[in-house]
## 1
Amino acid sequence: MDGSTRIQELIGEPRGYDARIVGRAKLKCRSDIALLDWDVRGYRGDRTCLEEPEEHGGIARVHTDNLSVEEFYQKFEIPGVPLCIDGIVQQWPAWTNWSLKSLHRRYRHVKFRVGDDDDGYAVRIKMKYFLRYMMSQTDDSPLYIFDSRFIKLDGSRILIGDYEVPKYFREDLFHLMGEHRRPPYRWFLVGPKRSGSGVHIDPLGTSAWNALISGRKRWILFPPNVPKKIVKAKNLKRIGEDDEPVDYFTNILPRLKRSMGDTLDYIEFVQYPGETVFIPGGWWHAVLNLDDTIAVTQNFVSSNNFRNCWYQTRKGRRGMARKWYRELKRSHPHLAKVADEMNRIHGYDMEKERERHHEDYRRQVFARRVKVGVDKYRRRLNGVDMEKSSSSSGDATDSDWTSLSENFDGLNSDEENQVGMAIRQVLVHPPQQQMDQYTPAQNGTTDNHVRDESYRTEDPPAAHGVSELG
């Protein structure tokens, strides 16, 4: 009897209601795919997609006993060189506590995130349903537990006590903003074979580490100087192929290697149980789970990668950058001076950006209020004779405006006109016509600027909405 059979006996066979629960989760995570089409490409029967590749690029591999923190800084973090470290994970309680058997016993009734729905809300299912799904799934790109809130949920907080941040990555300057203000930065991962993360760069210039408890992960890394157009290889994708990691590694990546030949600069390797991978900020990377895997990953900002992180945060999260700067002045004044010098060189005025940020945020809130109001009105028109509605003057009635007024309190006259135009769009066109791209106009022009929301309460994943950061 092999190990997987024993695990299957411990967690039980899938039951009838398992399919309904998992099916609902699939439809929420990927509303564009019918349930019967999750295995349409037949990767389950294609063993080549799970084969170990020939290692390329020479990933540095070292045991933690032979690497000091200072050596790590000088040889790897400062020059931005990826690294695979052995001997860290074996010292954690997670090395024994995070087996599939143990996870089922300790957390079977706890709900974990397996993706996001179309509105960006987390989709969660209980661990017991997910493990039974994982042991029996035949999907091309399966659901993937990728949970950043595991330490905040009842029943799963104990997970945080099963590991500690390795000594090489303990400086994290984003902690100055506090747990509630800083972006999500740590994730608990349970990935079935063929799941993974599409090619990406970790947000805000952060570096990352990924510690593997069980299974194997296939990695592809591209240096920061490799253009996005080459890395994404959109021109090599064929009709019917998705953006899922299994498609990228099995089909698109081999074409990219053939088309670029020796000119393609990349590192490819397999991460084994007990190994911790360090990904420097700015490096493109993608991951494919060759087995059912369990891992933990975190993103961090240290003094050594502060410059890039400050530039990216200042550009993408202006409000957060201002708070971070205030905290840096109090606790790390030498880094605040670095930020000041960068701002001076780039001609970046934080006070002017603050005013612009507030205006952009007000416009964004206004656009959302318009969308909510229009959606309410569209639902109200469902089932109504549209010819009769559109044969009127095209203006909303007094009762229509009354029912929507709670969405538009405090708008000025120009903004009310914008709302009126949006409502008339609904009257003229069928309710199913979407208004998602509507944004308010200022001074007769349309401003399509939307605040960066790469970080929400939980970041969306790359596989069916899941992004493996690190």
## 2
Amino acid sequence: LNYLKRNIYKALPSSRLETKTDSLAYNRVSVHLVAFKKSVCEGMKTMLESQQWLSAIDYTVMAWGYVKATPVWANPPHNNVRKTCFKTLATGCMRALKEGNFKIDQRLNIKGKLEKLKSENDEILVCVKYIDFIMNNGNNNF
């Protein structure tokens, strides 16, 4: 993911006179953004298909920072790749929370990790509320 993120920034215009968040810059970077999105989605899919629930949550936390580091574009529709990545990670995390049978100490650890992501994007809020719900009700399986 770091390699793909670097490719995004390498493709951005390097001139001081050009803006780095306009449509022209997006057109130069769009191929790299699609490759980045594909990698994020496939990584999460692999974790979920192999039923590695704790690893899926760790992947969410790790990849979240890389997605957050991608450029925010001036034209809102250009941010769809970024939004899709956040949504994919949050959805995968939610599935891992629902299907993983985590112990209490693991739940506390997961909650701490997800709390840190909460301020960066609203997509993860559902996961944080769900882990709170599990912890407050004391149920192991849902």
## 3
Amino acid sequence: AFLNAHRISELDLSRVSLAVASACNSHRGHFNYLDNTSLGVPQDGTAGLSLAFLRAGLPHAVVTLWAIDDEASCVLVQLLYKHLHKGGVTAPFPPLHVSRSLRRAVLDLWTWAAVRGKNFRDDPFYWAGFVVY
């Protein structure tokens, strides 16, 4: 079965601390979260995976806003998990911890890229598409 935003929103993920959807455009997507068609009312509203995860009970979701570079995404997600658990922090994560971890991961990504002769810092395409909800 295909897992889409509508199916995610119907799950009980209240015991899950974080979802990371690092695929291209994972914030986008359309599902009707006010489905009133059975009442003869047109469907109203669209949202992507971020809202679906939050509706399913997750306190945090990391998603992407656009088509992202595969290499940068792979490294950034690894660095994100490193920072999430740095210092022995475990789930559930304190408020702002996910955002701070993503920020630290971005800074480390810039260093990682610079060592390899790449300039990710000056081009937000490589890192700014990741957001925390």
